[in-house]
## 1
Amino acid sequence: MARRGETIELAVLGLLHEGPMHGYELRKRLNLMLGWSRVLSYGSLYPALKKMLRGALIEEVTTLPTPGVPVTRRPRIVYQVTELGTAEFTRLMSEVGPTAWEDDNFDIRFAFFGSTDMEIRLRVLEGRRTRLQERLDRVQSQLSMTQAEVDRYAAELQRHGVESVEREVRWLSDLINAERNPEQVALRPPTEQPQQQ
Amino acid sequence: MARRGETIELAVLGLLHEGPMHGYELRKRLNLMLGWSRVLSYGSLYPALKKMLRGALIEEVTTLPTPGVPVTRRPRIVYQVTELGTAEFTRLMSEVGPTAWEDDNFDIRFAFFGSTDMEIRLRVLEGRRTRLQERLDRVQSQLSMTQAEVDRYAAELQRHGVESVEREVRWLSDLINAERNPEQVALRPPTEQPQQQ
DNA sequence: GTTAGCATGTAAGGAGTTACATGATTTT
DNA sequence: AAAATCATGTAACTCCTTACATGCTAAC
């Protein structure tokens, strides 16, 4: 039950889904994709690749005659996902472990929604929404209790936090609706033009 | 130059600034305050307290006759901040190390703005804004390059990310203005009532 | 020809978690 | 009297980073 360490693994499997890649490129794409928080270092990527190689989730591509690029290339090690890896990808995407709703893990799952089916997408979106809603309820109940004695900066931080999470919940709700009614609603909710065309 | 491990230390020093507390209560207040992301565990709090005790940043309070509470209390170990700790708090608050603008570290600094002076507040706010703006610029320049080939879910994630960071930047700008013109603007920007009373 | 970036790794360590262990106090 | 929660701690482990080490290739 690989609940820990799923983050990089899932990201690599998802990216390799788009085509074979070498480590350096994986890192670049990952940092572009999840650039918001941390920058993935080689010190964690390469060992992870080795481990996945041992687990036969990925394999080396020996010859890949990319059209247009000269073949005189030595040091690059290009990986591709195996059948086992594809199965593991699906398993990880649908797994609802305790860390699956954290920011980074959710973002990775969301980024690869195109490689899954609607059932899983809905489960992930609704799970995240439920989690955020729980946090919101917890904070707001505590907020009403301790309201009087809080310093104004701490209060402003809480206000801003609540507002951000509420916004996130609305975003998730829009996405869930869009999943359920694929025809009626475009993926992007009408922020700019509130009229139907 | 304790650049790492500053997070808990700063939080503890900031909280003890409000008055003496024991470990359990520190954890509760911290989780209330920064409840958004992780929950601080005892396994990291208590060792940190021990370390700070060794460094004389905090000290045990032997007798504290809290009015109204019976004194028959044994196992609680109440800490208070020392002079050295107060100095360290100021130092950490004004330090602009590479991790100071990360979400958690920024939130902690912000939460204790009431215990610092405006100079430091402005430096922290402006530093955070600069960092976010840099990320924004980097992502948007990359976004314009790779625009065509991106999957729609990955694109929506990026769009949402950019929007969130832009919102955060605006929030910071409002706060910076409020710091610079303390009379004119209330801390909270006029969301509900745009009129002056 | 030298700087910048591509490309792959290893070793040591940091910052925290989970799980375990223990006992007192309050509530039901 | 049992259950919940208060209260303090330790040991092992995980995931990741930083710093180091190496060499190739493109650009200036």
## 2
Amino acid sequence: MSELPPLRDLQLFASVDAQTLQRLARDAKVETFADGEVVFRQGDKAVFFVVVLHGYVKLSRTASCGDEALVNICTAGESLYEALTPDGAIYRVGAEAIGEASVLKLSAARFGGLLRDSSSLARAVIDEAARKISALISEVESLKGQNADQRLAQFILSLCPGGEDSCCFRLPYDKRLIAARLGVKQETLSRAFAKLRDIGVRTETRDIFVESVSRLAAECRGGDRHAHLPSERGDFLESRNVVA
Amino acid sequence: MSELPPLRDLQLFASVDAQTLQRLARDAKVETFADGEVVFRQGDKAVFFVVVLHGYVKLSRTASCGDEALVNICTAGESLYEALTPDGAIYRVGAEAIGEASVLKLSAARFGGLLRDSSSLARAVIDEAARKISALISEVESLKGQNADQRLAQFILSLCPGGEDSCCFRLPYDKRLIAARLGVKQETLSRAFAKLRDIGVRTETRDIFVESVSRLAAECRGGDRHAHLPSERGDFLESRNVVA
DNA sequence: CGCCGACTTGAGCAATCTCAATCATGGTGG
DNA sequence: CCACCATGATTGAGATTGCTCAAGTCGGCG
């Protein structure tokens, strides 16, 4: 139970009116989780609307046959909106902290009420949903149309800070999770990393060094086979606001 | 340009207040399309919020390398919400009629304004977004965790009318599209249909006869390997409303 | 030192794709 | 009525991709 941070700083609430923000703050609870701790389970009654404050929270859905599909990895400022069923009654996916993480919990019932009263809050939620949809469409697109190597290339690309054509940075979480996120087995991911080595992507445990971001971007579009149309950076991370 | 149908009858607008509905109707345009006609193109400026009135509209996204991933097939009462980018400026996917179809076009600018003024409309959009998210999560889940046979089984299952354990019905669109929807090639789909024949799913061109729906449901959970946890009907089609 | 977890690598296998041939089926024009 | 074609669907054979299982490496850390 740590201090309540200013809600205004969260992307989700950036343009919500002050009064609503104040009301939200009134019953907001902050909770911290250690690595691997469960935020909520798939099937639980959805009593809270949850927003990530810091760290990463993994959303995954386990099918009746037992295998688990990673749905998203949410980070600071994102809600766990996609965890809710369309009727908002239960969580359709489970949520678990990756590394230490803290979240904001808002009473779902009260949140629903504020949604009715505040158009800026409603708008914020609509924008948030649009971002989630956008990210999911990107995921479906890459699952259907790209092989493991290309998906990894795109993922790394999405992590590259803009600006320089060569860059280095650290992977946000371990390779087991990256594999799950890309929808492949760890062994396959490992081999994909090996292939990227040939086009100037060096990896050292968790550190990545990209020789040429543009070279990498070309890889996403299919190695060397085709090569036209302007590049378009994939959005494993997203931003902005929606509808009209 | 046909008659404007009562907006109230569309699932999307079912619980929107009368005044807003009236305002929506004021500038709503109905447009009809023949099979294969383009409703809008990927990258177009998003000047309309579009809702399907009847028939099917295919949403697909073509990557820079040219191959096209089917994102969704929308039917009566559904909006083409997921076509919008998070900032609502352009369409991130293209829309095309499958067979004859008609849609409602609402000025995006005006729609945005009404969204601010009417909490019931905002709520309707939030619910719609939640349904889209739910469907997309199901799709990601099945792409990551199931093979082609299981995906087809689940798809057919989602088309079975409830009630009887055996049933027959007609496929809503041709196998080319079903293949795209499931993310496999037509040949693979054809072989998957052949396998389902062994477990009592007979196909005659476009007509399907399912001997035992429960037998089919078992197939989705992994053929015969595992068999616990209560069944849960996949949602290629969805319904209901959201967020506490 | 020795174990453990995370990662890598190898070899064989299964699922899916690709390319190509074949088979309805429905419509068209003679 | 029939020959002919176009389209969608099926089937086969071989190439690819990714998976499984198993072994091996590497870096902490007790």
